[in-house]
Amino acid sequence: MVRAYHLILTAYGFWLPNDPRGSWSTFVRNIELYRQAGPATKVTTKQSVAHHSHNHHQRRQAKQALKYPPVVFTGQQARAITQGFADYITKNNRRVFACAVMPDHAHFVIERCERSIEIVAEHLKARATTFLNRQNLHPLQAHANTKGRAPTPWARHAWSVFLSGHRDIARTIRYVEQNPIKAGHRPQHYDWVTPFTPNKPPV
Predict the structure, then answer these.
(1) In whole angstroms, how far apart are CA 125 and each of 42, 64, 119, 200?
(2) Which of 2, 25, 111, 183 is the Cys-Cys partner for 17 at CB 3.0 to 4.6 Å?
(3) Neighbour-count burial of 138, counting CB atoms closer than 10 A to its CB (0-12 exposed, 13-18 middle, 19+ buried)
């Protein structure tokens, strides 16, 4: 039984549909990106492939074919994103056991709820984008259309890993908490993150 998820939201350009390590995409919309790096590399595994070996130079070269520059959030933008996450989580009574907002992606360990994890992911991204817009911090605002609407700063989908056992959840919580530290950033603590209680039943 799935009790929680390791949810990974990636910024635009962080994980390409034809990433050599694999992706969740079935095709590549950008013709130049297809020419540069080939077809989609869809995988069906629910295990993270982030640490699989690959050609870093090839991956960087492929990003040059993107329509917009890859998004890397500043500290101010990351704070606005975090505020958006907090707004969604508190208003919808979601239980989050760990969260880390990085410059080009975000990690969650989030309890299973009545909504699918795909819908939860879209709501989190939408609320974060709303807060970026409210504070005039949208990273792709320079590429807004004639109506003033900027492209989404997020990748089209999200990566979710099923977590069933207590050990899996606890191990993933530690991984998420250590993610900023390993990247040279400060530990992240949020008052809307709740301690993991193994014996508490899911919502």
Answers:
(1) 22, 24, 10, 28
(2) 25
(3) buried
Strand partners, 154: 11
Per-residue pLDDT tens over the stretch 154-175 = 988 888 999 999 999 999 999 9
Contact 118, 158 (CB under 8 A): yes
C-alpha dihedral (107, 111, 115, 117), degrees to nearest 10: 30
Residues 91/138/145/70 CA torsion (nearest 10 deg): -110
103: tokens are 């410059």
What pTM was estimated for this model as a whole?
0.78
Interval 2-48: pLDDT, tens: 999 999 999 998 755 545 544 444 433 444 433 444 444 444 455 55
